[in-house]
Every structure is written in C-alpha cells, then in structure tokens.
Amino acid sequence: MDGTDRIEIIKGDITKVQVDAIVNAANSSLLGGGGVDGAIHRAGGPVILEECKKIVARQGGCKTGEAVITSGGNLPCSYVIHTVGPIWNGGKKNEEEKLANCYKNSLQLAAEHQVKTIAFPNISTGVYKFPKDLAARISIATVLNFISTGSGIEKVLFVCFEDESFNYLVKELNTQK
C-alpha cells in the first residue's frame, strides 16, 4: 500500500462533497473572500464567519501556511479547515514550502479532530497564481507523505473546479503509483 489508493481526484463543487472536513483556501483575515473561500462561506452560512471572527479575536488572522478549524455550518461536513496559501512570487519567497505547509498543517488539524475523510481545493492556483503543475506535485507528495504516517485519515479527495488542475493532479498521482 503506497497510499495512492487513499487519494481520489474529482471535478466538482467542494461545498457539496460528503466528507468529514473540507479545506478552505482562505485569506489571512479569515473573513471570506472570492473563489473557493467565498463559495464556502456562502454555502456554510453565517456560523462559519462567526467562528472565524472568534479565532481572529483570539489570535489575529491566519498566517500563510498555517491552518485553523471551524464547524461546517450548513455544509455537508463536520468541519472546515481554513488555510492560507502563498501568493506566487516567482518562487523566491519560500512559496513551495509554504504551500506544502498548507496541506501538512490542514492534515494535522484534521487528524487531531479524528477526521477520516477530507477534501482539498487547489490551494493558491487561482488568483494567487501558483503554477498548477508545481502545486500538483507539492500537494500529492505532501499528502502521500502525511497519510503514510498512520494519521488515521482514510481518504483524501482533491476537488477541482477546472480541467487543468484536474489533469495535473491525475498525472502526478499516476507517477506516484
């Protein structure tokens, strides 16, 4: 078992998948935004925003590569894990390490909350302009490394909004088999 059998890549809407936790590609304010972040906040309802405001009041925002957790609100999941991906700056500001930390810290938080199934969007590949092929390599490698440690996570779903990210992730997963 190399772990690749525990990863599934689909096209769809992350707010509709049936998993224990979904990951939100949040901004550092945790107060909602565009893209995946806005969709999750809209579908999850006001309870997610209220919990995010409490986190901000307690610790400030969320730093790039870090993750925090809230309930799922009206979503079909128990938890939303909010992580802040890096803005691509040509690779000169540790963007690769920060992106890997998004996945690692999200998975760690999931494991601490006994999450068995988790869904990720394509973190930082939209308005943050992280190269999609490089993001696919980092995300697959980081997830495979984490789930091989006996974390209790049984299934990791990558939910893609568009074909390009989907194709890069499928290709990367196949090279790991």
Short description:
The chain has 177 residues and is of the alpha/beta class. The chain contains 5 helices and 6 strands.
* Alpha carbon gyration radius: 15 Å
CATH level 4 superfamily: Leucine Aminopeptidase, subunit E, domain 1
Distance between the termini: 10 Å
Helix and strand element order: EEHHEEHEHEH
Strand content: 15-25%
- Side by side, the strands of the main sheet go 1-6-5-2-4-3
Instruction: Report on the biggest sheet.
Output: 6 strands, mixed
Query: Any idea what the CATH architecture is?
Result: 3-Layer(aba) Sandwich
User: Are there runs of 5+ residues with pLDDT below 50, and where?
Assistant: none
Helix content: 40-55%
Task: Enumerate how many helices there are, as a single number.
Answer: 5
Explain what this protein looks like in three dimensions.
The chain is of the alpha/beta class and about 180 residues long. It has a single domain (about 5-175), classed as Leucine Aminopeptidase, subunit E, domain 1, CATH 3.40.220.10. It is built from 5 helices and 6 strands; from the N terminus they run ββααββαβαβα. The protein has helices at about 35-45, 45-60, 95-110, 130-145, 165-175; strands at about 5-10, 20-25, 65-70, 80-85, 115-120, 155-160. A 6-stranded mixed sheet has the order 1-6-5-2-4-3, with helices on both faces. α4 (about 130-145) links the parallel β5 (about 115-120) and β6. The radius of gyration is 15 Å and the shape is globular.
